[in-house]
Amino acid sequence: MRPLFHPALEDIRPEAILYALSDPERAAIYVRLAGAACGNTCSALAELGDRIIPKSSLSNHFKVLRESGLIVSERQGVEMRNQTRCTELDERFPGLIKAILSAYGQIPGEPKTD
Amino acid sequence: MRPLFHPALEDIRPEAILYALSDPERAAIYVRLAGAACGNTCSALAELGDRIIPKSSLSNHFKVLRESGLIVSERQGVEMRNQTRCTELDERFPGLIKAILSAYGQIPGEPKTD
């Protein structure tokens, strides 16, 4: 099984972050992960609101999030556990993730503003 | 000649902003426009650093920036004058544009941080 690619913090590029979060479905998945308080993990995100995301799309979304540097994935048996890298990302790009989630009206733990 | 499309402020979507600025060349063009202090216009941006951007690419970059809501373009004779919508955008998505430009290390008027 191929190892999962995660960029080092210093190799994370703003363009990759912006591209990854420019897809509203992917942004919603990221929000769900971020809502787990940057610590818990979540491997079953196939339902977003009332939509069901096909497993292949979901897998691709996680790949884009992971390779852009937004999340860390870890295989655990047949499952994949994912968590955000928000703390270290906020050191590298202060305020960026929060401003993006706020623009989507989706800061975890805060009421929807839009 | 077809009128230029500009979305109304309330129709501007975060995903369009992120997508438009996820291209470093387009982001650099935006930075140049924003560097004109949100007021001046600039129609000749074919040189970015030591690169020359072909006219067709440049025209497409401006179209993406305009239709995402990042800039306003105005035909003046054979020229197109462009300026950013940063003040109104900052009201709609507080901090977003500044955080993105900061991530690129390119806030106009501030030293490069990266």
TrEMBL record, chains A, B:
By its UniProt entry, which Gene3D superfamilies does this protein fall under?
Answer: Winged helix-like DNA-binding domain superfamily/Winged helix DNA-binding domain
Give the molecular function GO annotations.
DNA binding; DNA-binding transcription factor activity
> Which Pfam families does UniProt cross-reference here?
HTH_20
Cite the HTH arsR-type domain residue spans from the record.
16-98
The reply on keyword DNA-binding is yes
Q: Which InterPro entries match?
A: ArsR-like_HTH (IPR011991), HTH_ArsR_DNA-bd_dom (IPR001845), WH-like_DNA-bd_sf (IPR036388), WH_DNA-bd_sf (IPR036390)
Keywords attached to this Swiss-Prot or TrEMBL record, sorted alphabetically, are:
DNA-binding
In the UniProt record, does the keyword Metal-binding occur? no
> What name has this protein been given in UniProt?
DNA-binding transcriptional ArsR family regulator
